[in-house]
Amino acid sequence: MGVIVERNESHPSMTGGSLDLALYFAASPLTTFLSAYLLPRFMGEKSLFIIALIGAILGLFVLLVLSETADFKEITLGSIGGEKIGNDVKVFGTVASMRKSNQSIILTIVQPEELQVILFTGGKGNISFQPGDVVEVLGEIDEFNGKQQVFAQRIRVVR
Amino acid sequence: MLCMGIDLVIAALVGIGAGIFTGLVPGIHVNLVSVLLITLSSSLLGFASPLALATFIISLGITHTFLDSIPSIFLGAPDADMVMGVLPGHRLLLEGRGFEAVKLTVVGSFLSLLGTLLVVPLLIPVFPFLHNLIEPYLAYLLILVILFMVWKEKGLRKMVWALIVFFLSGVLGIVTLGWPNLNQPLFPLLSGLFGVSTLLLSLQQNVKIPPQSISDTIKIDKLSQTKAIGAAMLSGGLAGLLPGLGSAQAAILAMELVPGLNMFAFLILIGGINTVNFAVSLVTLYTLGKARNGAVVAVLELLKSISTTQLLIFLGTALFAGSIATLLTLFIAKKFAVWMEKVNYRKLCLMVISFITILSSVFDGFLGLLILGTSTALGLLAPLLGIKRSNAMGCLLLPVILFFLL
User: How many angstroms separate the Cα of B125 from the Cα of each of B121, B237, B278, B290, B312?
Assistant: First the structure.
């Protein structure tokens, strides 16, 4: 159970700053038009049902396809200070040391700089890492005692 | 000592004010404000103690659970905790009893809060035991509840459609909640499934809001009321104790496990669940050191752990804020009821749909709109098929089941 955090480059702004602004202001009158003027054309429940079913399946399909490309942004330990608390990021590194408790594992990984990665194990005792393991960590940046660290959602041993 | 007391009262009052704002404005949640508070905490701690800031958050959270029924019922724009209240609330609004619907949720919130505060001394010693006992089996309980929910549909055709809607919304929930870096995944997901779809159907059916009555008498028998309050305390308590179980999922559990609740009792239940959830999450923080919602995470960030004295302060704050929020909610709901008669409901629906659309695009851009559109389309299916809307709760139930099973 480990997490590699990568920022999804395609989100939240998929189109760029000024286009986003245009999107915000276009979205509202567009939906108003769709709701107010198109809906009465499809007043029948059968037509509305067909449109809703097609829309739901199509929308789900598009989301599933897009989710395949949704990814975390890879960062280096040196650049972690530029990331905001709560951002999702991906970090590669080598395990330098490991501390284990009932509920968590704290890894120190080097890249060559050190980073604390905290993995909550929920009491599962069969998760272990060795110094020298190269790991890919997906997680969320947090701060503790003024130092940045990553709360891991998933860690994969690369080699 | 006196200064600290005044400090806390002021914090609680400011929290009530903030809770009115977050409760009434769709899309603004307690978690948003809590995260903002933590971001600004280094400056705020210059003139307020960590305990005062935590008191502000508690007061805000409790007040929010009272006020959020108003946009849900009058505007059809629920937040995550009130989704199950949209349909019965909307139904009462169309009968000219929108105020009564809000009053029922307020009764549920306040009486459930009182009941929960009374049993806190019993909860503290048993919570660790209950947590370890229930958590391993929660996924199976939820699966049974879902199967029961589907089985209760009338006819094989509706059962099949109920399963389809459940799984489609479940897939949507998994994709949305698992997407990296979405700012507010729940907002377009739940607004589309339960809010915008309801408003679109109102437009399609050319619904007109009748004059709203401001009644002072609630016609509900004591047994139904007691069952609803008890169910709210039980299911809201489970939501406050266990990870991954929110108020909306708890409402599904209560609905299926406590049969025979009429629409009025159901609104009392819905109102009670999210208030109890919040209050019990404080006890969970004290006994297990775990946070179950964004607001309590913020409290944990500020205080690191809470003592018995601090727990008592927070529970006292919950009672204080809940009492004031009861009066405020009824006052504001009366104003809304009068206002609803004057407003053009069609235009109001369009404004709310536009507002939700704009917020979805502000929060998450194109993806927010795509999720909103897909969830709206899915949300239309259940009422058009004549099956229960709660089948669309697959969006939260399926991710929770997988969370516990995998």
Answer: 8, 14, 19, 15, 16
pLDDT score, position A1? 32
Q: What is the ipTM metric for this complex?
A: 0.74
Contact B181 A8 (CB under 8 A): yes
B181/A62 touch (CB, cutoff 8 Å), yes or no:
no
Interacting residues of A129 by C-beta distance below 8 A, sequence separation 6+: A95, A98, A105, A107, A135, A155, A157
Number of domains in chain B: 1
Report percent pLDDT > 90 for chain A.
8
Kindly tell me if the per-residue pLDDT of B181 is higher than 80: no
At CB < 8 Å, which residues of chain B contact A?
Answer: 35, 39, 168, 171-172, 175-176, 178-183, 200, 203-204, 346, 349-350, 353-355, 357-358, 360-371, 373-374, 376-378, 380-381, 384-385
Three-class secondary structure of residue A124 per DSSP: coil
Q: How far apart are CA B68 and CA B285, in angstroms?
A: 24
Distance CA B119, CA A89 (A): 43
Residue-wise pLDDT tens digits, B55-99? 999 999 999 999 988 988 887 766 666 667 667 888 888 888 889
B316-338 pLDDT, tens digit per residue, is 999 999 999 999 999 999 998 88
Are the beta carbons of B377 and A59 separated by less than 8 Å?
yes
Confidence of residue B405 (pLDDT cuts 50, 70, 90): confident
- Which chain B residues are Cβ-neighbours of A122 within 8 angstroms? none
Contact by Cβ (8 Å): B56, B12: yes
| Neighboring chain B residues of A86 at a CB cutoff of 8 Å | 35
> CA B95 to CA B89: how far, in whole Å?
10
Q: Which of A27, A35, A86 sits opposite B203 (nearest CB)?
A: A35
Q: Quick one: closest CA in B to A13, which residue?
A: B365
Domain residue limits at B128: 2-405
Among A residues 1-40, those touching chain B with beta carbons less than 8 Å apart: 5-8, 11-15, 20, 23-24, 27-32, 35-36, 39-40
